[in-house]
Amino acid sequence: MANKGGRVMPKGEKIGLEQLFDTESSTYTYLLWDQVSKDAILVDPVDTMVDRDLSAVEEKGLNVVFGVNTHAHADHITGTGILKQRVDGLKSVIAKDSTAQADLHLEPGDRIVFGSRFIQARATPGHTAGCLSYVSDDESFVLTGDALLIQGCGRTDFQGGSAETLYDSVHSQLFTLPDDCVVYPAHDYKERTSSTILKEKTTNPRLTKTKAEFVELMANLNLDYPKKIDEAVPANLKCGIQD
Fold first, then answer.
1. How confident is the model at residue 180 (pLDDT cuts 50, 70, 90)?
2. What is d(CA 129, CA 142) in angstroms, rounded to the nearest whole number?
3. How far is CA 33 from CA 30, 44, 115, in A?
4. Residue pair 80/67 in contact by the 8 Å Cβ criterion
5. Which of 24, 59, 76, 237 is 20 to 30 A from residue 51's alpha carbon, by CA?
6. CA–CA gap between residue 155 and residue 147 (Å, rounded)
7. What is the C-alpha to C-alpha distance for residues 48 and 71, in angstroms, rounded to an integer?
8. Cα torsion through 43, 110, 158, 47, rounded to 10
9. What is the mean pLDDT of the chain?
10. What is the pLDDT of residue 3?
11. Which helix (H) or strand (E) holds 63?
């Protein structure tokens, strides 16, 4: 019988993680990798920052296998289409409920596997109808997209958004994670990089309100639409490929 290999994963071995920031859209892209196999994924890449992302991949000697999105963004165009053109075999990944084109469509509970590590999808709709958050295999961190931000949350007034749904999503799918689980959002506008589940569920000024108070607050934000929405949403529904 042939020995097909395998290894012992040391206790506490973490998924490799680098957080990359786009100043124009205030978007965080996450490069995650298996420390041994060097298989990697990019989460929420931005089209104009693909060169930066691939430089980081090359510097670390990684093999990027998936370009992943938390949802179809309205404030920037995803980099997954360009990544597919630049990296042989790379596949794009997004929620089935996003209705966006991709190579692979996820449902809640699905795992994105890279090497011997994975992140698991949790449905966190409300900002859009197709938002997913991604929990690391050891529950040490969660990529929350625009559902849960640092001391805030994503808006709920377009793309099938719902304040009621977002409130329920965050409380049932995110605030039930371990208190020390690190929160990594898709955006921040004050140069903050991370938070924790404990901090957000006890001090987030929006999501510590009652559901009724939250719904009223979100209905009266009166925010301007993102500058790139008319360009970004159609492109992102096609994996970031523009006509």
1. very high
2. 19
3. 10, 15, 8
4. yes
5. 237
6. 8
7. 18
8. 20
9. 94
10. 55
11. strand 63-68
Q: What does the block give as tokens for 83? A: 């990544």
C-alpha span between 111 and 138 (Å, rounded):
13
Angle at 90 between CA 24 and CA 26, to 5 degrees: 15
CA 219 to chain centre: 25
Tell the residue number behind the tokens 């490799």, with chain if given.
16
Question: Which tokens hold the place of 192?
Answer: 């903050």
Record the tokens describing residue 90, joined without a space. 């790379």
Indicate if the pLDDT at residue 164 is higher than 90. yes
Residue 241 pLDDT greater than 80, yes or no = no
Instruction: Map residue 94 onto helix, strand or coil.
Output: strand
Copy the structure tokens of residue 124. 């966190």
